[in-house]
Design goal:
five-stranded mixed β-sheet, 217 residues, SSR_resolvase, elongated, alpha/beta, 12% strand, 54% helix, single chain, Recombinase family protein, 8 helices, Resolv_N
């Protein structure tokens, strides 16, 4: 599995320079122990309460791009402190990236309290997503009731409009069910050489849901 090493100390004091060197050395050893392929090493000197750290944002970008499977840190406090740590753990979990630490000599085991907070965050996020989708679907139904026909907005080659773009709708549905946002799906498909915008992903997914609802009626 591909891994990213993340080393952090809280200040730029010279006394902490040796600490960050030691972290990197030990994390390289941890990667060898578990046969991980290290693709990136990120070193950062910033407070753990600060979530807008260039280094940790780079880690999250790698996770989002599916470039890494595992994040290696000295201990969970290197990720961040307080709510910053919870937010980062939630994001890593969302992208399916595991977190290993030297302190636990393996995958980080969350405390009962942290697990509960993460579960609540996931439930709230899922509820917000469903609520948002429900509003969109309701708006679409009202528009259709008032005479709007989505298919007439779509390009039609024979009628001289723009070509209707071929999109991997099954992949869009699968990624959506995995909890990705429309923007994230667009980025993912762009990486697979599909030239598709967030708006197109959103429109095609709503078309699918509308057809699905109509089939159930």
């Amino acid at each position: 599995m591909n891994a990213v090493i993340y080393c952090r100390v809280s200040t730029e004091k010279e006394t902490q320079a040796s600490s960050i060197d030691r972290q990197e050395s030990e994390l390289r050893g941890l990667a060898e122990q578990f046969h991980f392929n290290v693709v990136e090493i990120i070193r950062e000197m910033r407070s753990g309460y600060d979530i807008e750290r260039d280094g940790i944002l780079q880690v999250l970008d790698l996770a989002k791009e599916k470039s890494v499977d595992v994040l290696l840190v000295q201990d969970e406090t290197r990720l961040g402190r307080g709510s910053a740590k919870i937010a980062i753990l939630h994001t890593l979990r969302k992208f399916g990236v595991k977190c290993y630490s030297i302190s636990e000599n393996g995958e980080i085991q969350l405390t009962e309290a942290d697990s509960m907070v993460l579960e609540i965050v996931s439930i709230v996020e899922d509820y917000q997503r469903k609520l948002h989708n429900a509003k969109i679907k309701r708006g679409m139904r009202r528009a259709v009731d008032k005479g709007y026909r989505p298919e007439k907005n779509l390009a039609n080659i024979n009628e001289g409009g723009r070509d209707r773009k071929e999109v991997p709708i099954e992949e869009i549905i699968r990624l959506r069910e995995l909890g990705l946002t429309f923007r994230e799906i667009s980025i993912t498909l762009n990486g697979l050489n599909y030239d598709i915008s967030k708006a197109t992903v959103h429109r095609r997914y709503q078309e699918f849901k509308l057809r699905e609802d109509e089939a159930k009626q």
